[in-house]
Amino acid sequence: MILKPANKIKFYLSALIIFILVSCGESPNATQNEARRPPNFILIFCDDLGYGDLASYGSTINRTSNIDQMAKEGIKLTSFYTSASVCTPSRASLLTGCYPQRIDMAEVRKEGFRSVLLPAAHHGLNPKEITLAEILKPAGYATACIGKWHLGDQPQFLPTRQGFDTYFGIPYSNNMHGEKGVPLMRGEKVIEQPVDQSTLTQRYTAEAIKFMEEHKDRPFFIYLPHTMPHAPLHASERFAGKSQHGIYSDAIEEIDWSVGEILQYLKNENLAENTFVFFTSDNGGAQNYGGVNTPLRAGKGTTWEGGMRVPAIAWWPGAIPPGLESDAICTVMDLLPTYHQLVYDVPFNDATIDGFDISPLLNAKEKESPYQAFFYYDRDQLQAVRSRKWKLHLPLEHRYKGHHTDEGFAMETQLYNLDEDIGEKENLAEKYPEKVEELLQYAESAKNILGDTARPSPFKRPAGKVLKAEEPKL
Question: Which of 98, 123, 145, 150 is the catalytic position?
Answer without folding.
Answer: 150
